[in-house]
């Protein structure tokens, strides 16, 4: 059985690390009506989520985009003006709302997993995919993404003030156990395009691809 104790059995799958969906029970199959993407900053939740929704004919929702609209400013501005506690409270309330949505792919922000109580509520309704990217690729993506400045202000952590690499390593070490425990399956994203990751998610959880070229 899978090390994550889900209902998946190891299969002869890509790169030898993947699982093959077998014997998905009724409750798990029902949860695939709401797909939640989790993972650290810049793992591709937003990019993959949009493509995944197109592939499987679902709506797409991005929690950060929704919060930016609701707060009326960028995440960096919200943090500068009101602090992380304010942002986290808006995020927490949104997660509760989203738990009742169906036929939707939801890209969450990397810190949404910190809301453990609301996350458990969401998990009862949704199938959760952890997009995992190792440190070097995460740093490269963070540095090249033009949205980083407005969307990813520095997070408080043990290595605060020691530079992006040390801070990212510390945050990954803190967060990875939460993503692991809070997801149904993990999909590695390194050396795959966002489109390839979306296709891999689809086949991994047995979602029909409606819009495959
Ligand atoms: N599989 C991938 N390979 C390379 N770059 C990617 C991949 N997925 C996303 N990116 C790029 O990384 C950056 C962060 O992606 P994004 O979807 O915003 O991540 P997240 O929502 O997890 O923070 C963007 O510039 C995006 O184009
Ligand atoms: O890791 C985090 O705590 C955060 C990740 C960001 O989203 P992405 O994961 O989409 O970058 C955004 O929600 C905010 O800056 C907080
Ligand atoms: Mg995002």
From TrEMBL:
Pathway(s) it belongs to: Metabolic intermediate biosynthesis; chorismate biosynthesis; chorismate from D-erythrose 4-phosphate and phosphoenolpyruvate: step 5/7
GO biological process, one term: amino acid biosynthetic process
GO MF assignments: ATP binding; magnesium ion binding; shikimate kinase activity
Cofactor(s) the record lists: Mg(2+)
InterPro entries membership: P-loop_NTPase, Shikimate/glucono_kinase, Shikimate_kinase/TSH1, Shikimate_kinase_CS
UniProt GO cellular component terms: cytosol
Enzyme Commission designation: 2.7.1.71
Keyword field contains Translocase: no
PROSITE patterns, sorted: SHIKIMATE_KINASE (PS01128)
Top enzyme category: transferase
The UniProt record lists the keyword Amino-acid biosynthesis: yes
Binding positions (Mg(2+)): 46
Cellular localization per UniProt: Cytoplasm
Keywords for the protein's UniProt record, in alphabetical order: Amino-acid biosynthesis, Aromatic amino acid biosynthesis, ATP-binding, Cytoplasm, Kinase, Magnesium, Metal-binding, Nucleotide-binding, Transferase
Cofactor: binding comment: Binds 1 Mg(2+) ion per subunit.
Binding site for ATP: 42-47, 152, 192
Reactions the enzyme catalyzes: shikimate + ATP = 3-phosphoshikimate + ADP + H(+)
Binding, substrate: 64, 88, 110, 175
Subunit comment: Monomer.
HAMAP family given in the database record: Shikimate_kinase
Role summary: Catalyzes the specific phosphorylation of the 3-hydroxyl group of shikimic acid using ATP as a cosubstrate.
Family label: Belongs to the shikimate kinase family.
Name under which the protein is recorded: Shikimate kinase
